[in-house]
């Protein structure tokens, strides 16, 4: 098999590059290890999704203590967005600059917010993001308002919004990529966050990027093919082929350009597993940063329980709060973002509280309003992805910044109590949930400390790009998908320009 451009992984990053290259005349092949997610009744069944872990990978990883576990990782066409909560935030301008935190420094990005702004706008348009500009006190500059108005609150959330305003806070409508409103597909099914959408109403990478790319032309998709190794040419400067395992055979795919987008943990794994005699530490890794600086937000669910009323909300994710994002008058240090969680159901609580009787969990979930407190995790070289000698993923996560995170959780609890919820409980998300994984193949201006340049090209190789959340030098404290999409659209446009001037079609040289 040969393509002009091979893209490994059909998540946000890979599909955004495919979208930009579609219709340019380039032959693009997207290789995806998963299959299309089946449309079935279980998509919306909390017991199937959380009780039986129906869609979670069966692979096991090991943690920093060498304990095996089954991670909250999903492999399907469209990647993690098939399960995401559709919150589509731009990072703040200051997130692109060096920012001091209580427990260290969040480093500057090699590009500014201004450079990414047009691609944020393109990404919002492709994902049909709904929102309202001018309400979020930390909102970055926007050239234009959202094309679609926000998803309206249901009564319980509208009441909470009022109560937060009464406390002098500035709740805003959360930007979300859900096809809601007149003629829209969303039926407020009552699931959404962490569930697949059975009716394609959630704007995910498959629906918003990959399908339109295939339709535009030049893009084809190979599913059920897990890339296990990248081979370089004799000079080591170019990637010449990808080796992939399908259900029946091992195949080799050659290309002029390789775009790696297998997700932050799998992209690093693949680069490390592709070590050869020229690159004993792994491909793209002369900086020794590949696999290091793994980040994942510090996230805690905070539930306000009101025994006097049942929360009938179907789609709660309409409200968010950034009053504590940079600390401001409330704290000397950045604390992070607060947003609504998808509606909690009893099977979701069972994993965290296995000793609590099901009836009580059911009671809690019917009477709770569910918030999500999220704080930045800072990059540390000791938080890392490695490959064990028997080929398993080893993920060591040394969380940072927990003190400010706990203060954010305390604030969230206080504001729920003040809003009239007599009982407030919280639970931190576990280390086995790498939902906001990023940072493992970071971009930067200095090849000594970063594997990728500002266009996400590997410094060590002329034809290798990495465009999933691996490239983040810092994690900020809002959800990552829109930023992955924006940078991948920028890289895809850049590749398209290079193709147009013939700079990408270099003759292939024999393998090594
Ligand atoms: C439950 C959940 C809720 C979330 N909610 C939100 C939210 O509301 N807002 C937000 O912004 N973000 C959210 N996120 C995070 C968001 O989904 C991710 O940041 C984003 O999807 C990452 O995109 P990516 O392209 O980096 O990687 P991925 O989406 O992980 O895509 C990688 C792709 O590569 C494939 N792949 C992996 N290894 C290989 C291989 N070796 N060969 C071939 N293919 C391979 C995978 O199957 C996958 O399709 C959520 C995540 C989860 C899990």
Automatic annotation (TrEMBL):
KW Flavoprotein (keyword) present: yes
Pfam families to which the protein is assigned, alphabetical: GMC_oxred_C, GMC_oxred_N, NAD_binding_8
Domain Glucose-methanol-choline oxidoreductase N-terminal: 76-278
Basic and acidic residues: compositionally biased ranges: 138-147
UniProt domain Glucose-methanol-choline oxidoreductase C-terminal: residue ranges: 394-488
Keyword terms: FAD, Flavoprotein, Oxidoreductase
The keyword Oxidoreductase belongs to this UniProt entry's keyword annotation: yes
SUPFAM superfamilies on file: FAD/NAD(P)-binding domain (SSF51905)
Renumbered residue ranges of the record's region Disordered: 131-150
GO molecular function: flavin adenine dinucleotide binding; oxidoreductase activity, acting on CH-OH group of donors
The family this protein is said to belong to: Belongs to the GMC oxidoreductase family.
Protein name per Swiss-Prot or TrEMBL: FAD-dependent oxidoreductase
Organism: Paraburkholderia franconis
Taxonomic placement: Bacteria, Pseudomonadati, Pseudomonadota, Betaproteobacteria, Burkholderiales
